[in-house]
Amino acid sequence: LCFNDTFSDLKSYLILALSALSNGGPRGFHLFRERKTWSEAQTYCRSHYTDLASVRSKEEKDAIFGKIQFYQNYWIGLSRESWKWSDKSPFLLKKWGPTEGLNTYGSEYCTDPKLIKPSNGGNTNGSAKDSDS
């Protein structure tokens, strides 16, 4: 999914929320349908769950992909401003699919399926670069 200024005020219908136990127990992911901007989705998730979903491992990616329908857009908690998740954890998992991160066409600025919509200070302009560099 690529991003540009046309997404700055986009309201997505699908949001992935994260719930986690404070003692470091299992993390759960919740999909809900609300028309919200990224900032509105983050506020909602922080009020009702823990935060927007962050993906820290292949297992978590697989758990999320098991809940979503491909070729739809989802808000998750990645911030392009600092390339960290909204819960402040680092962005480590960069290979989302079998061909992602291979830099097939010289520069990979997108990921597929349409999962990542990073925020840039509450806006969603810019590109999500999916590479290991």
UniProtKB/TrEMBL annotation:
Cross-referenced InterPro entries: C-type_lectin-like (IPR001304), C-type_lectin-like/link_sf (IPR016186), CTDL_fold (IPR016187)
Sequence ranges assigned to domain C-type lectin in this UniProt record: 29-110
Region of interest (Disordered), residue spans: 112-133
Pfam families reported for this sequence: Lectin_C
Bias (Polar residues): 120-133
Protein name: C-type lectin domain-containing protein
Organism: Periophthalmus magnuspinnatus
